[in-house]
């Protein structure tokens, strides 16, 4: 009992010291005390109308239309927020700060509408594996974490699917955000991914994949990931992202 009390006191003391010397600041406006304040959270714009990834026409939960799916690899794209300037600022700051704590806060304040959207996958199939977009070794060493992996853990709290690691980043590429035209982004990411050699045997045990990324803009990155997964034998590839630009 005494040891338990001492442990609790130590934890509280450590948390107090962390807050004292490394206080939380809202990543959107700088408000002290939280990473995403209630005012900024209200300014995030939920995507109310999902569309087909390819033809951009309205689609239930972002499922790819049958005609579009005949010649493309992504079977559906589900996104949560519009990539407005505020969310762009928050995501950029997350990449270089205490990202784990930020996603813990997001989990506590996420809207019921988001949970409802994510529940679509549970109704679609129980047989999914979550696959984060792999980060290059250079960027991983710079940040110490993979943003897509953290978002995968965040979504996993709602979906309860296992997180896989079928993909690896095969080569270093220029940052997609630095390339302004769609064609340039497409060629930049070509050949960037591959199936891990020691995971090839798991392909036929994994019929459905949900690829996770933070933001989908041109879609070149997730397209390339889906192409590699489909070529390897995955039957269905869906994409789930926090934001769509």
From TrEMBL:
SUPFAM superfamilies: PRTase-like. CDD domains: PRTases_typeI (cd06223). InterPro entries: ComF/GntX_DNA_util-trans (IPR051910), PRTase-like (IPR029057), PRTase_dom (IPR000836). Residues 196-242 form the Phosphoribosyltransferase domain. The chain crosses the membrane at residues 6-22. Keywords: Membrane, Transmembrane, Transmembrane helix. Belongs to the ComF/GntX family. This is Phosphoribosyltransferase domain-containing protein. It comes from Candidatus Roizmanbacteria bacterium CG07_land_8_20_14_0_80_34_15.
């Amino acid at each position: 009992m005494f040891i338990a009390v001492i442990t609790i006191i130590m934890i509280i003391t450590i948390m107090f010291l962390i807050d004292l010397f490394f206080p939380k600041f809202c990543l959107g406006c700088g408000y002290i005390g939280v990473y995403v304040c209630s005012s900024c959270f209200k300014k995030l714009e939920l995507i109310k109308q999902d569309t087909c990834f390819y033809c951009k026409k309205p689609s239930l939960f972002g499922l790819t239309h049958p005609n579009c799916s005949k010649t493309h690899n992504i079977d559906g794209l589900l996104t949560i927020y519009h990539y407005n300037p505020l969310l762009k600022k928050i995501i950029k700051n997350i990449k270089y700060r205490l990202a784990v704590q930020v996603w813990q806060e997001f989990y506590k304040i996420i809207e019921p509408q988001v949970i409802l959207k994510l529940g679509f996958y549970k109704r679609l199939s129980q047989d999914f594996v979550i696959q984060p977009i792999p980060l290059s070794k250079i960027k991983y060493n710079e940040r110490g974490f993979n943003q897509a992996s953290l978002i995968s853990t965040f979504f996993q709290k709602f979906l309860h699917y296992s997180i896989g690691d079928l993909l690896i980043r095969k080569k270093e590429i220029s940052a997609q955000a630095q390339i302004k035209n769609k064609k340039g982004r497409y060629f930049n990411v070509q050949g960037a991914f591959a199936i891990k050699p020691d995971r090839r045997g798991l392909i036929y045990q994994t019929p459905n994949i949900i690829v996770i990324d933070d933001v989908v803009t041109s879609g070149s990155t997730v397209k390339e990931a889906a192409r590699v997964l489909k070529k390897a034998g995955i039957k269905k590839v869906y994409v789930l992202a926090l934001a769509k630009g």
